[in-house]
Amino acid sequence: MTQQHPSWYDFVPIPDRGKLVFPGGAQLALVVTINIEYWEQDRPGQKEPMFPGGPATIPHALPGDVWDTANWTWREYGQRVGIWRMMELFDELGVAPSCTCNGMTMVERRRIIDAVRERGWELVPHNWVQNDLLTYHAHNPAAEREVIARTLDTYRTVVGRDATAWLSSAIRGTRHTPAFLKEFGLLAYCDYLNDDQPYMIQTVNGQIVCVPYSNDVNDFNMFSRSGGSTDDGVTMLRACFDQLHREGARSGRIMNFGLHPHVVGHAFRIGALRDFLTYAKSVPGVWITNREEIARWYMGVHEQHIPPR
């Protein structure tokens, strides 16, 4: 990217970087993400479907100004049942995930947020509502900034501290998003899909750490979009984990595994999550962590990893 934009980053291929060694000598940083999302039932005048970026449980989603009961309540299953099944599993295994949440999740589904906070899990803001993408405001930066500010203000009120990381709903940020986040004091931006290591994004307001996300290592793509079985999911996850762990012996790698309570939280899929997490915990040299921890650590080593140009 070039400096004509409010945010940019250098193209540095992975062989041209310094070696990363995670805390404790870990080769692999594993971030398990639970996306706790809130969709409006309908939006007057909207003709596009209400569920951008996500598959429909019943095809031919209705216009956004009509309540699509099947697709909306399929997602609500994750809030009423799926997230609690997942919490039981994470408690049993002693694994702390990183949870993203919309501003409206914090307002309308406070019971879930309180349960996350009681466990001390990371909470990452994720737009105001899931169906209002930041890219809808790509040509109106002031409107995008207002969405971010409103979400962060609600986060501060509910969580009792300032947010440190951000993941945009449907991973749809704009060229302005990293700069706005840095303006508001955040440490990490997580929308980009382009790496297996953290790196610095430059903005007109200073540097912010990119902690990359993955849309491929994601229960939507494994199950809802591709129709994979639970056995397929475990095989894919272990293959990804093992390869990144091997590469991490040369220089540390990040594996982000994105989850949605209305997908993996179903009774017939939860076993895939159990099998993978049990396996991941059995392997040495793995740092099971979150976005804030990665960002704070990387801020101290980034100049040795990718020297300024």
Structure description:
This protein has 309 residues and is an alpha/beta fold. The protein has a single domain (7-41, 62-305), classed as TIM Barrel (Alpha-Beta Barrel). It is 39% helix and 14% strand. The chain is built from 10 helices and 10 strands. The protein has helices spanning 69-93, 103-108, 110-119, 141-159, 177-183, 219-225, 230-248, 270-282, 291-299, 302-305; strands at 7-8, 28-36, 98-101, 122-125, 165-166, 188-189, 199-203, 206-210, 253-259, 286-288. The strands form 2 sheets. The chain has a 5-stranded mixed sheet with strand order 1-7-8-6-5, with helices on both faces. Strands 2, 3, 4, 9 and 10 form a 5-stranded parallel sheet that branches. The relative contact order is 0.19.
